[in-house]
Design brief:
The complex is a heterodimer of chains A (400) and B (559).
Chain A lengths: L4 E4 L5 E4 L1 H8 L6 E2 L5 E12 L6 H4 L8 H11 L4 H8 L7 H9 L2 E3 L2 E3 L34 E2 L6 E2 L2 H6 L14 H10 L4 E9 L6 E13 L13 E3 L7 E9 L2 E4 L2 E9 L2 E15 L5 E10 H10 L7 H11 L2 E3 L6 E14 L1 E3 L5 E3 L28
Parallel strand pairs in A: 11-19
Antiparallel strand pairs in A: 1-2, 1-3, 4-9, 4-18, 5-6, 7-8, 9-10, 10-12, 12-13, 13-15, 14-15, 15-16, 16-18, 17-18, 19-20
Chain B lengths: L4 H8 L12 H7 L13 E3 L2 H12 L19 H4 L7 H19 L4 H4 L12 H16 L5 H18 L2 H13 L2 H4 E3 L2 E3 L7 E3 L1 H12 L6 H9 L5 H12 L4 H12 L20 H21 L12 E4 L1 H7 L16 E4 L13 H4 L10 H13 L13 H4 L9 H8 L3 H14 L14 E2 L2 E2 L4 E3 L2 E3 L2 H9 L2 H16 L8 H12 L4 H10 L1 H4 L2 H4 L8
Antiparallel strand pairs in B: 1-2, 3-4, 5-6, 7-8, 9-10
The chains are: A alpha+beta (400), B mainly alpha (559).
């Protein structure tokens, strides 16, 4: 058993250091606090990460169903450059459109700045808001972040009122009509393309007895290896990963397991990434709840505030994802619900929720010490709180 | 059937080539150009294994020559492919495969990248024949490929063939390529010939000729063709003297290439060629990745090389050693941590690993190479594992099941009544026709039930605790570690490895009652079962080079 003490980092996350080592390094009194004593530490790597979707009842969530898919988007784009609906529809349905390239250029450069045509993806504010349909249904995964009560969703799992304006903005978009194990298409494209090369993220959960309710410490970091695939294309359990020695992506959170659910004391977290859509995970006031399945896999929701421009940038930088890029840009901007810019009043942050999975893994330090063991089971806490391995999506959530 | 352009071109030019499928080893030789006399006894030919073929090509032409294509399937006899090699023929499709391999190799040897290095002369004209240059090339290469100097008429024939082909193609290197292709599909290359000659020291008796002896020694210890020094020892007759033979054996055994020989032997003995058909259901065994499958064989071979060659340990300790080598993929399969600090994206490294005391892994029986190879795709099989242990490692034979056996109880892994393999086998063995054989296999195999069909560790099956206790030769044990310790002390283990080592080199099992074999066996025991000492004893024995009739043995005589 060893005692660990932690100190806040400049990013609001925390990094674990022994008191002695830290004092030797800085030679100054520090505002330290010590966590609960540690008897065991279980390791994981994040094997699945995406915007949390809730698509049990599309008609209820998006009653107008007017955003459509790629065809409707093309029609709208042609209309934006001056064609009538009938003309635009004919053109969008014509696979042999003779001047397709020229039209494509006109669509892309339909923004006008200082009298010049410019790329709409570089100047999204220079085109009108397409006003895409946003979610008006009652449900979304998330946490109560203390936001405006008029915008609350109900979390289908916890039945609590939650803030998740990102889902409101994107949830009626065709490519977000996904349910785990599917990710929203643009995110899945990015994840699956980069999984075999991008450095992975690890989670360590430490506590006196992780088989029982009690205080825990959750450490989220980046590791020096990419995820290892298993024989069916998923992520293998039980592999060993080495922690990145720099502390930029090192977050230490305090938490508690109660009735089989681990929740953390909200804190800001930051993880550097290498994937489009996940070039970073930067969540202010991050709330988290984890469950552990019988096979040892973690299923979690992470919610908090993210920079809406960073999310929107992923769309404007990669417009060929079958989604209405301008529509999403303006929707996310409109729905942003925190951190108003003092000069403009425009909110800079938007409430959001991610869903993640993590498989058991050994976590080691660069010096070879194994600091977290891979444990394949069982689930935490009471039987009633266990997540069924076959369906972790809480079947009862469909009709809360 | 298709033949190479070279075969067709040479045939059109009147050169005698293989013009029909080779139904048997004897026929293969008989059909050859007539350069060599076909031996009367087919047992004196051994077809090169794929690994011997690859090693030979790389040793003769260099490792940059890519060998692409598949080989004729091998035949296993007496538990060894190297014994089956003396029974092996070349089929229609096999000849086609060898032809494709030969064409690919010959094309690379003469291409612009390699010709300056591998062809010792330049032709007077790139578009015309140059018999002197061709002769220089084929004299050297032919000696290496055929493992003996070419007879004058052989060399004349191949040089003429190259010249004729050059005249047609207007390309000197094209001519060399076609003629080299023919050499590569010649039985003189594809088969090892045991050419006997009168023994001057024992009038009236025969001995293996010097080049045959050099080849036998080289394929035994290096798993490849003889090098220049060995061919010179054959040429001078030095290899027929005790001192000369000792010099060559010690030279070969002190070379790093000795590892190739050890690997070839143990891969054959452990039946790793069968991995080509191994697969596991990824839904049940997600950790059994392609990397883990390939690495598992390498893990065992590395462990053996380390134990036998580096540590010069007691062979029996291979069944108890906690030292091994792992990659991250294998470590994940076994559920143990392995800290690999290799830069992201680089190939996984092999790292030494020692299982801690108390860990259920120890010895090669707990390697996935054994556990997964001898399990069906969706479940473990104590019977298959027990049978494999007896047959592969103890040289015993387990009879096949009767044709009318009902396997339904054994295969019902979802049974709510018989939840563990022990339960199912106990129920199955109530059938009298099954009980006898299962008594031979199951008490051993059940001790490995803590490892699933892919080699992953488990304590329960279908929610029921696994009891890994077992027994062999009236020695009881409680778990896989105990099994390894019990097996270590079974005499059949050391007898078997010695016999199979002899067979790997000679293509035949030794007669257990042969006095010289008894001496070799005793020397192995006296060395504390040092495998290198065993190989040296075999390589220096007369028995190893004796005519086939002296050592061929009925399969039951040693059991």
């Amino acid at each position: 058993m060893k005692n660990r003490c932690v100190i806040n980092t400049r990013r609001g996350g925390t990094s674990a250091l022994t008191i002695a080592a830290r004092s030797m390094l800085l030679g100054a009194p520090l505002a330290l606090f010590c966590t609960a004593s540690v008897a065991e530490t279980h390791g994981y790597v994040i094997s699945w990460f995406a915007t949390a979707t809730y698509n049990q009842n599309w008609k209820e969530a998006c009653p107008e169903d007017r955003n459509g898919g790629g065809l409707q988007l093309n029609i709208r784009n042609f209309m934006d450059i001056g064609f009538s609906r009938e003309e635009a529809t004919d053109m969008a349905n014509n696979p042999a459109l003779p001047n397709r390239e020229e039209l494509r250029e006109r669509v892309i450069n339909r923004a006008i700045v200082n009298g010049k045509h410019v790329n709409v993806y570089n100047y999204p504010d220079a085109v009108p808001d397409p006003n895409i349909e946003t979610v008006t249904g009652p449900y979304a995964y998330g946490f109560d972040l203390g936001g405006d009560s008029a915008h609350k969703f109900i979390d289908p799992e916890t039945k609590q009122k939650v803030d998740n304006q990102l889902w409101r903005a994107v949830g009626c978009t065709e490519s977000y009509r996904a349910a785990p194990p599917q990710m929203p298409y643009p995110e899945e494209l990015s994840w699956n393309t980069m999984t075999d090369s991008a450095l992975a993220w690890a989670i360590q959960i430490s506590g006196e007895d992780l088989g029982r309710d009690g205080k825990v410490t959750v450490t989220i970091s980046r590791v020096l290896q990419h995820l290892e695939r298993d024989a069916s294309g998923g992520i293998v359990s039980g592999a060993t990963y080495v922690l990145e020695p720099v502390t930029r992506s090192h977050n230490v959170l305090q938490g508690e397991i109660k009735d089989g659910v681990l929740t953390v004391t909200p804190a800001d977290i930051y993880l550097e990434g290498e994937m489009p859509y996940f070039a970073e995970i930067a969540i202010k006031d991050a709330h988290m709840r984890f469950k552990r399945r019988d096979d040892g896999k973690l299923i979690a929701y992470w919610g908090g505030y993210i920079d809406w421009k960073r999310f929107a940038y992923m769309y404007t930088a990669r417009p060929a994802n079958g989604a209405d890029t301008m529509g999403i840009y303006h929707a996310v901007k409109k729905m942003a619900d925190a951190d108003p810019d003092p000069a403009t009043g425009q909110n800079r942050m938007i409430s959001a929720t991610y869903r993640m999975e993590a498989v058991p893994a050994y976590i080691a330090e660069l010096n070879g010490n194994v600091v977290a063991v891979s444990s394949r089971g069982p689930a935490w806490g009471a039987q009633s709180a266990r997540v069924a391995a076959a369906d972790d999506r809480s079947p009862d959530a469909a009709n809360p | 059937m298709k033949f190479s352009q070279s075969a067709l071109a040479l045939a059109a030019l009147g050169v005698v080539v293989l013009s029909s499928p080779v139904p048997s080893a004897t026929d293969a030789v008989a059909a050859e150009s007539g350069a060599a006399t076909a031996p009367a006894d087919p047992a004196v030919l051994l077809r090169l294994s794929p690994s011997q073929y690859r090693h030979s090509i790389h040793d003769i032409f260099g490792a940059s020559i890519k060998i692409t294509g598949r080989f004729e399937p091998e035949t296993r006899s007496e538990g060894m492919l190297s014994v089956g090699a003396r029974l092996a023929s070349i089929t229609d499709s096999g000849l086609q495969r060898y032809d494709e391999l030969a064409r690919g190799i010959a094309a690379q040897v003469v291409d612009e990248r390699h010709r300056d290095l591998l062809i010792p002369c330049k032709p007077q004209s790139a578009t015309g024949a140059d018999a002197a240059c061709a002769r220089q090339f084929f004299a050297r290469v032919g000696r290496m490929l055929y493992r003996r100097p070419l007879a004058a008429h052989e060399l004349d024939g191949i040089v003429a063939a190259a010249g004729d082909a050059t005249s047609v193609l207007k390309n000197f290197y094209g001519g060399l390529q076609l003629a080299l292709t023919e050499m590569l599909i010649s039985p003189e290359f594809l088969f090892r010939r045991f050419q006997m000659e009168p023994d001057p020291e024992r009038p009236g008796q025969e001995r293996l000729n010097a080049y045959g002896k050099a080849a036998e020694l080289s394929f035994f210890l290096w798993n490849t063709t003889p090098d220049e020094a060995l061919l010179r020892a054959a040429e001078s007759g030095e290899i027929h003297t005790r001192a000369g033979l000792e010099k060559q054996v010690d030279r070969l055994m002190s070379s790093p290439a000795m590892e190739d020989g050890l690997r070839g032997f143990f891969a054959d003995m452990l039946e790793f060629a069968d991995f080509e058909t191994v697969s596991k259901d990824p839904a049940f065994f997600p950790s059994y990745t392609l990397s883990a499958k390939l690495d598992s064989q390498e893990q065992t071979l590395r462990t053996i090389v380390d134990h036998v060659m580096v540590r010069e340990g007691d062979y029996r300790d291979l069944f108890t050693t906690r030292h091994t080598f792992l990659t991250r993929s294998l470590a994940a399969l076994y559920g143990v941590p392995l800290v690999d600090k290799t830069e992201n994206g680089q190939p996984q490294r092999w790292l030494p690993y020692t299982y801690p005391e108390g860990d259920p892994h120890a010895g090669i029986l707990t390697h996935a190479s054994f556990l997964a190879l001898h399990s069906p795709s969706g479940r473990s099989s104590p019977t298959d594992r027990g049978k494999a242990l007896r047959e592969l490692l103890m040289c015993q034979r387990v009879p096949p099941p009767p044709s009318n056996v009902d396997f339904s109880v054994v295969q019902d892994v979802n049974s709510e009544v018989h939840r563990t393999a022990r339960d199912r086998l106990t129920a199955h063995a109530t059938e009298a026709t099954c009980a006898g054989c299962h008594r031979i296999t199951d008490p051993i195999g059940l001790a490995l039930e803590n490892f699933d069909a892919a080699g992953g560790y488990r304590t329960h099956e279908n929610g029921a605790p696994i009891n890994p206790a077992g027994e062999i030769n009236r020695v009881k044990f409680d778990d896989p570690i105990g099994l390894g310790q019990a097996i270590r002390n079974v005499p059949a283990i050391t007898n078997c490895v010695a016999r199979k080592a002899f067979a790997f080199g000679s293509g035949r099992m030794p007669v257990a009652a042969n006095p010289e074999w008894k001496q070799i066996s005793q020397a192995f025991a006296d060395s504390n079962y040092n495998v290198l000492a065993l190989l040296r004893e075999i390589a220096l024995s007369d028995l190893f080079y004796a005519p086939p009739a002296a050592t061929t043995v009925a399969s039951t005589s040693a059991r």
